[in-house]
Amino acid sequence: MVASAIFITDLTGKPLISRNYRGDIPLTSAIEKFASYLLEVEDDTKKPVFHVDSSGEFLRMEDVGCTGVGGETFVYVQHSNLYLCGVTCKNSNVALMLTYLYQLTSLFQDYFTTLNEESIRDNFVIIYELLDETMDHGLPQSLDSTILRQFITQEGNRMADDSKNKPPVALTNAVSWRAEGIKHKKNEIFLDVVEKLNLLVAANGTVLHSEINGAVKMKSFLSGMPELKLGLNDKLVFEAAGRNSGGQASRSGKSVELEDIKFHQCVRLARFENDRTISFIPPDGEFDLMTYRLDTHVKPLIWVEAVVEPHRGSRIEYMIKTRSQFKSRSVANNVEISIPVPPDVDSPSFKSSVGTVTYLPDKDCVVWTIKQFHGGREYLMRAHFGLPSISREEADGNKSSGGGTGGGGGGGGGMDTSWKKPIGVKFEIPYFTVSGIQVRYLKIIERSGYQALPWVRYITANGDYQLRMA
Amino acid sequence: MATPHPYPPRNMPIPGTPGVGVPPGSHPGAGGPPAAAGGPGRDDSYFTESRKGEVNELRQLLRTFGTERDKQRKREIMKKVIAYMTLGIDVSRLFTEMMLAIETRDLVIKKMVYLFLCNYAETHPDLAQMCTNTLVKDSGNEDPMVRGLALRALCSLRLPQMIEYTSEPLRRSLQDGHAYVRKTGVMGILKMYHLNKEDFDKASFTDILYDMLRDPDSSVVTNCILVLNEIMADSGGMALNRAVMLHLLNRIHEFSEFGILSVLDLVPRYIPANDEEGFQIMNLLDPVLRTANAAAVMATIRAFLSIADAIGKRPGDNSDPSAPTVDDLKRQVCVRIKAPLVTLISSGSNELTYVLLKYADQLIDLCPGIFDDEYRQFYVRYSEPTHIKHSKVRLLAKLANPDTAPDIVAELSELVADVDEAMGRLAVRSLGSIALHDSGGQGAVESIARRLVEMLDLQVPHVSSEAATALAGLVRRHPSIISVVSAPLPRALRYITEPAGTSSIIFLLGEYGDSISEAPYALERVIDSYENITDDCVKTALLAATVKLFFQRPPEMQQMLGRLLKKATEDSTSQDLHDRALFYYRLLRSSPDPNVAKSIIASKSMSMTTNQFAEEDDSELRAALLNEFNTLCTVYRCKAENFIEDENIVKFVKMPKEHPLSNEAAAVPVADPGINTITAHLGDTTIGDTANVTPAAQTYGGEVDLLGFGDDTPIQSAPPPSNSNSLQSLALKSSVTLSGEEYQNKWGAVSDLEAVVISSLPMRSRPTSTDAVESALGAFNVMTMASGELETEFKFFLYCQEEDYFGGSYFLIQAVVTKAPSSLSLTIKPSGGNVDSNKQKEKIDQLVELIRSALGEYFN
Description:
Chain A is of the alpha+beta class.
């Protein structure tokens, strides 16, 4: 990959900071082009990768190459109120540019806790240093925050009399993610197994798609160079063990088949390929040890049914039924069910057996909050709204009918689906994983032989959890 | 010749964002420059004036810099200058003052001055030149951090006249003890290359870079590869051969997650020596698919595909009937990479998902059917950005097979009614394409046709129109479904408003009018309102349809055909239409036998036999794009030479084929015995020697890891200790120390008769100092006891120990390098360890070879 320059702008495209690595593109005008892209191109047609030809035209994807060679490609990501953008005039590796930009954001976050316009302006000196250290001449170098932190710091570092700001060997050795000589008073390690349930339910109630995106997150506060070994109830391991020791696997309870596992770079991948052992030397602090995906048919943990009775020109009524479909000893916390409503409703009134209901006019939805939702329960909520005698659709329709037929799909009869967004559900179920994954052991071995305490937590939360409305 | 810089300097004239960015409390005067926020007023003289004031104020502050004692205050002053620079205020007038501050022991201040310098050097070349000395001096600082930073600053000045100052520190940096400096130096070479290619060629850094591929530090190696790729862009990137490739692959687990990419990107250009090696490389790279780094995963996929391409059997090659073909292998690769790719798509951020969907699209074209069972992943989510939704809808059509089609069709039908018009259109087109490709299994075509017919009546202009167009294509492919379609056509013609849809309906009426009783009357209505038709396409379609229908149902059509021909020939809006109408008219009038005209006009040539419209056949483009997989080309579906300027293109060139395997070592610029020794020393099984490794299983899914990749416990398939490949059996211990006394004792203990003397190996150039030789040898674990320079020769007392579990033998070496003519003489005495004299001889031979390669730069 080659990036000619990297710059950060606010949401209007006004540059905050930039670094021109190669000097082979006119950076100032490139930033201006980026700003005008943000301004001129409609949101719907904006793409995270776009090409500007040599005459300065923004090209549609299919038109690239039709107007001759030259120009630049912009690759950008958004983070809070910022855009981070890379520019290139070569045939660069896009995935790499995006990965770099993502990692740069997490690096900045690591440094400044929050990354936004303010923190950029407050820390521009460090940002210049980081931009220089993470990329040289447009080619990515090291992006590991734990390592960079050791020598890029604004704390008192005087040259040569302080060994602290030497570029650490770790920058260049094999265990590049951990420095030597880390000391903690209390050796502890926290392990969070977080599973997010993605769900898509069709209007007729069939589950179109369900999958689990899991992550094993770690917070490591261990001294020295500890060797860790993580044991999970991985089906393949159990099967292997079962073969070897004559069906002992059945004794150890159920196991889980993890479909696609991705590891932090500290995990010895070959070892895993060999015997499914997850062994590693952890970085210090917080990191995602592994993520996995399970594409299985999961019963929707929280089921929602909506019956809507619109009475044109007078009122609209909702009957929402929700049911928790997990074991009764588990509890879902902070359940939020958001039901979309037409944009022009008024005078809301609600009745619910549990929880609180609020109408959010700016989001055109009703949010039903249930603080604690025990397993195996069912609740009901009724909502009632007034509708204006002439709906907004009709009013718009009348207005735009003079303007011909270009008005889009919403105008026709029976097509006023613009508010038919899906129902969204948010929840968190502690001490529970949908997949049934369990940590069986976490062995910590360090040369000095200290005792370290592993803490394990499980949590299941909603991912992209959508139920389409009938 | 100096390369002129066509672009404005790197400072950024940014519309003022006053006040912000300046550290709190650092501004004694008013709260920043007056508000000139982005308005046109920023050129107003008042503001410039005021800024001048600000800058002058800064200059005052900087003048006190030398006397200021407080480190924090000093930093604040610097920070303010940099803040102004960031805001785009031109602070280049402070150049002189800033340069005075470069002599500091505070690293933070130093970095800021460097930054300032790099930003303004191009506009103030003379002033910048003044500080070269300091930079050169800093590049020799005792602190590696400072050395690296100074070097980077020095190379980033982009002043062609500076090259004479930079090349010396650069050369020095490449031998630096600290990897940070070396890797910065390597990158500096690239900067120099871009600055002045002629001087660069003179400095002959390229060979050094190739040598440095053996650097013990992976980040240095990474940069070497990147730099070489760019310098050699004209010939497709770094020169590649088997030895280099295998050396890098064997070390791949040492690389950082970004460094690994540099190696992975070389693999597509490599041609494996044989099938086995290809499989071994895939096995070796397989774990990379488990990293969370999307870029690395994609690069691995590309590498896999290229290996499959290289080792798979071509059609027509019947040498080995059991060998898998290219297509088989590619299919297997796609099966392997499916899960990781899908995970990345489903869990990545939007931007990445968008790009990966494009990649998936290309892979699906490559191996249709592979992703079919993951079709649920490509369902559209309400919350996704439009461009992702669109990509998914396009992909869904390609995932249809008899099993998945019902679900996919149902899903697409839902999306037809989406608020987003473009999405609705795409959904209809996707439905049409499933039917057209007949990928939905039995009955799917008809059921889709029925759905499309329903959509005709949906009264949503864009949906009806798209449905009409889709139906027109469908009927051409599957003429039998006209019975399903025919009934609503006349009705649809009345309310479809978009020209494309209208002409599709008219086309269908003309083509299949014999089975649609109302067809003539439907057309008549259109003909009668001919004046209201604005679109030429509709008119042309109408003309063609009417003439065709005339031959099928002459009595009903004759009248209206006459009317239409009259109107069309009098229509002056379209030349094409006018000519065509005349042509029909004359043909009909002049031909004595109506059947002649009929055979010309109403021939049934419209049915399709393939699943694709001719304009959709882009197999050639797809093949070309596959070579550049994982680049912008894939995203744009456009070849690089069509949108990238010539000078920026890196051609895709495979390495020269240099098989059979024998005598390649001679052709290798980086001598490979050393390479093998290094890797052997690392305790790894190498893939260099195919004789030692059991044939790889053809399932390269990763169940069997024959290579013991990156593992600390060598578990299986360690190569049998054989001397089948003599180059591999000598490995040297990395940390050996001998005291002078021990050395003398050992030397004395071995009689001179046992010593092996190799005299006067001719050398091309002579080393400049003993240090150079020592460090070169040290990299290969040959240690120096003592050395010295005499008038005519260099003398070295060297030693090394063989890596052996039971304590390998020592080798004591006396080396003499004569200065003129340059030659190397060696006296080697083995001491202890293995007594088998045959083996000992062999090992000494290898040792000589190793020393030669370590000192390769003097021999080649």
